[in-house]
Design goal:
heterodimer; A: Rossmann fold; 2 domains; 8-stranded mixed β-sheet; 4-stranded antiparallel β-sheet; 12 strands; about 20% strand; B: MetI-like fold; about 75% helix; globular; transport (chain A); nucleotide-binding (chain A); ATP-binding (chain A); ABC_Ni/Peptide_Import (chain A)
Chain lengths: ~375, ~300
């Protein structure tokens, strides 16, 4: 663990009690963010991206949700051991969250100035007038034109992009160390998406904040993220620096995601889609949860749940020289060797028994 | 806003005319007030004719209505058959009913909203289920049963209050009748607030408020309650009129000489000017209360713009 490590989620497990039974939304999620770093968390709907974020923020609905295990280390302290009041004091000054739909996430009956100023009034004890002044400054910061005239306007009087800027401003208000952005651009026009992402990236650099960017948009990720954590069925399936992951994914699911991006240089062909649907979390398949949809599924995948294997360049290079049966055997052996070594949170890792082949195939292609 | 108010005031005119004309028609055109005045005895023809002429009863209904309305706008609500001017009855009854309504509405607002918020925040727990059961019981039992029971226990058995309210009807004597009057609406306010709270508690902006690190209390009062009260305020506004006019049973039980009591007397004695006079004033109260609710709505919810 580096000194810069801001947040470390370790083996986080969350369950939801529903009428149909217990849904295991998170089955041991681990990831970390350093100060000033952007971690993109990628995955389909229901893969547990938002649940992890809510657990970190401490805004998970409990009940029906329940954190059954794991640790969330934030600046060295385990958040799950803190009292409700201590955690509340962290929200805002230390960590903040940006939500997907700014229209419904802002209170419709309170002016944006009030909602922005509330941060200063509650956490800093500012007066009503001071708070409004700071709200105007914040709105200027996120480049909302005519901030002073608009500070008393209500959320519905702003455009989608402007509303999301207000959400960003609210998260930035107290200059937190960590910001979690839960699909911040999904609800926006494509043209506005780029602007908002750029703003977020600029501000993150300026304040040297850790940023967790939850998204299912791989295009957004490539430009802004330093590392990527790919989630599937409540687990991390791959964790890698962004360049390495794009160059050679080490999990068939990641490969599927990358292949399903429309590309300008391959016009005319049919767009790749991962077959099947994400698993029902009430009945997660045995073995690797991705096996029913996996193009390289083998017998072992149906029975053995793959742990996170450390993905090392050397091992992958070595395997690249072997071919066919040999490669498979080598990969399996190497994988078995690695089982003993739990990869560090900052290290590249993949939850696939056959990650080596996957990487090699990607390299060859 | 100003233009909206003017438009609403103009819209009130046809509503007012329509409502009063219907009441006028029902009271004057159906049944004979003069016969009613004499009760079981048949009036002699000459007296009846003189009375008909005096009260304009010999003219066509529409003309009677016009004459009556003309009088009303000059402040003359006509004379009741017992000789007292209707305005005098109104001046006596309306403040009493108003006080009773105030007591009832304060109960509704304070108790109803508090219970609604508490049950809404503890959905599915014991407190929630028991309050919901209690509201069902209150809604199911007729007012006269609850009213007379409470009157008997508090007034007669325990002797804590006077079972009948004195003609002056000061506030302290109106507390028990006020509770009785408020009970049914109180149950509805509780349920309405509860539903609204439950619905809004899952709203995204409440989650945002929590994520901002606001204390629980502030999240509830500033963010959750503010939004949840919009439908409740609408209900309360409309209820003002109902409480003023609809207190007939309560006012009979506790012998309160308010609007309901006078209306009841008026109907019983076929006292047409009394009935129509009171109804006209009640229509006005309803109209003004509704206008106030609509204006308050815009204050509570900035998304509603009146242009």
């Amino acid at each position: 663990m580096t000194d810069d490590r801001l947040l470390e989620v370790r083996d986080l497990q969350v369950e939801f009690s529903t009428r149909d039974g217990v849904v295991r939304a998170l089955n041991g999620v681990s990831y970390g963010v350093d100060a000033g770093e952007t971690l993109a968390v990628l995955g389909e709907s229901g893969s547990g991206k938002s649940v992890t974020a809510q657990a970190i923020m401490g805004i998970l609905d409990m009940p029906p949700g329940r954190i059954t295990g794991g640790e969330i280390l934030f600046q060295g302290r385990d958040l799950l051991r803190l009292g409700a009041e201590e955690r509340r004091r962290l929200r805002g000054p230390r960590m903040a969250m940006i939500f997907q739909d700014a229209l419904s996430s802002l209170n419709p009956v309170l002016s944006v100035g009030f909602q922005l100023g509330e941060m200063f009034r509650v956490h800093r004890g500012a007066s009503r007038k001071e708070a409004k002044e700071r709200a105007v400054e914040l709105m200027d910061r996120v480049r909302i034109p005519a901030a002073r005239q608009r500070v008393n306007d209500y959320p519905h009087e702003f455009s989608g992009g402007m509303r999301q800027r207000i959400m960003i401003a609210m998260a930035l208000a107290l200059e937190p160390d960590l910001i979690i952005a839960d699909e911040p651009t999904t609800a926006l026009d494509v043209t506005v998406q780029a602007q908002v992402m750029e703003l977020l990236a600029d501000l993150q650099r300026e304040y040297r904040m850790g940023l967790i960017l939850i998204t299912h948009d791989l295009g957004v990720v490539a430009d802004t993220a330093d590392r990527i954590a790919v989630m599937y069925a409540g687990r991390i399936v791959e964790n890698a620096p962004v360049k390495e992951l794009y160059a050679a994914p080490a999990h068939p699911y990641t490969k599927g995601l990358l292949d399903s991006i429309p590309r300008l240089d391959q016009k005319g062909g049919q767009l790749y889609a991962i077959s099947g649907l994400p698993p029902n979390l009430l009945h997660v398949p045995d073995g690797c949860p991705f096996h029913p949809r996996c193009p390289r599924v083998r017998d072992r995948c149906r029975t053995d749940l793959p742990p996170l294997y450390a993905v090392s360049e050397q091992a992958a290079d070595g395997a690249a020289e072997a071919t066919g049966e040999q490669a498979e055997a080598a990969a399996a052996d190497a994988a078995h060797d690695d089982v003993a070594r739990v990869p560090d949170i900052g290290e590249r890792s993949s939850a696939c028994h056959y990650w080596k082949e996957t990487v090699d195939d990607a390299r060859r292609a | 806003m100003g233009r909206y108010v003017i438009r609403r005031l103009l819209q009130m005119i046809p509503v007012f005319i329509g409502a009063t004309f219907l009441i006028f028609l029902m009271v004057y055109a159906l049944g004979d007030p003069v016969t009613g005045l004499f009760g079981d005895r048949a009036p002699d023809a000459a007296t009846a004719a003189r009375l008909r002429a005096e009260f304009n009863l010999d003219k066509p209904v529409w003309l009677q209505y016009l004459l009556y309305m003309g009088n009303i706008f000059t402040g003359d609500f006509g004379t009741a058959f017992n000789g007292r001017p209707v305005t005098e009855l109104l001046a006596q009854a309306i403040p009493i009913s108003f006080r009773l309504m105030l007591v009832a509405i304060v109960f509704e607002i304070v108790l109803g909203i508090v219970l609604g918020v508490v049950t809404g925040l503890r959905r599915g727990r014991a407190a929630d289920t028991s309050v919901l059961m209690a509201t069902l019981v209150v809604i199911a039992i007729p007012t006269f049963v609850l009213g007379t029971t409470l009157q008997f226990f508090l007034g007669v058995e325990l002797g804590w209050v006077n079972p009948a309210v004195s003609p002056a009807a000061p506030f302290d004597e109106l507390i028990v009748p006020g509770i009785i009057l408020a009970l049914v609406s109180l149950a509805y306010v509780t349920r309405l607030t509860r539903t609204s709270i439950v619905e809004n508690a899952r709203a995204d902006y409440v989650r945002t408020a929590v994520a901002k690190g606001l204390p629980r209390r502030r999240v509830t009062t500033r963010h959750l309650l503010r939004n949840s009260l919009i439908p409740v305020v609408t209900y309360l506004g409309a209820d003002i009129g109902t409480l003023m006019a609809g207190a007939i049973v309560t006012e009979r039980i506790f012998n309160i000489q308010g609007v309901g009591y006078q209306l009841y007397e008026g109907i019983l004695r076929q006292n047409s000017p009394t009935v129509v006079g009171f109804v006209v004033v009640l229509v006005l109260i309803f109209l003004v209360a509704n206008l106030l609710v609509d204006l308050l709505y815009a204050v509570l919810d900035p998304r509603i713009r009146y242009a």
